[in-house]
Each structure stands twice: as C-alpha cells, then as structure tokens.
C-alpha cells in the first residue's frame, strides 16, 4: 500500500485517474475571509480509447460511453465557476 499526503498551493493542479486508483481526501473547512476562500474546479475527463466502465457506473455518471461520461451533478446544484473573490 502507498500513502501520499499533499498540501496543494494556489495554482496547483492534481490529476487522478479515478478508475485505476483508489483515492480519498480528508475533510476541509474553508476560511471565513473572502481572500482566503478555497476556489476548486473539478473537471471530468474521458479520453478517446479510455477503458470501458461496467454498467453499475451508469446511474452515477449518466453515461458510461467512452468519451462521453458526463460527471456527477447533484440535484439542486447551480453550475458556475466565478473567478472573482
């Protein structure tokens, strides 16, 4: 087993291949000051020629087709990516 702990800094990017690597994260409490608030963007990538997913993933991702796997969208979530603080 391998355990890796990291602290991301502003501007850092992390790429994790969810279908080949079991990963988790610790709890996060955001700062109350607007200038210190966390700004996290999550991108779901599905590359052409990627490995197929079993049918059990369809309910979660909406599609299991290679190159069109959607992502997890929670009901009531408003999608946005503001850049201002």
Structure summary:
The protein is largely without helices or strands. It has one helix at 58-61.
What distinguishing features does this structure have?
85 residues, globular, 1 helix, 5% helix, little secondary structure
How many discrete domains?
Answer: 1
Proportion of helical residues: under 10%
Note the quaternary state here: single chain
How widely separated are the two ends?
39 Å
Number of helices in the DSSP assignment: 1
- Round the mean pLDDT to the nearest integer and report it: 76
| Fraction in beta strands | under 5%
Given the C-alpha coordinates, what overall shape results? globular
H/E series, N to C?
H
Biggest beta sheet summary:
none
Count the strands? 0
Structural commentary:
Helices cover 5% and strands 0% of the residues. The chain has one domain. The model has no long low-confidence stretch (mean pLDDT 76).
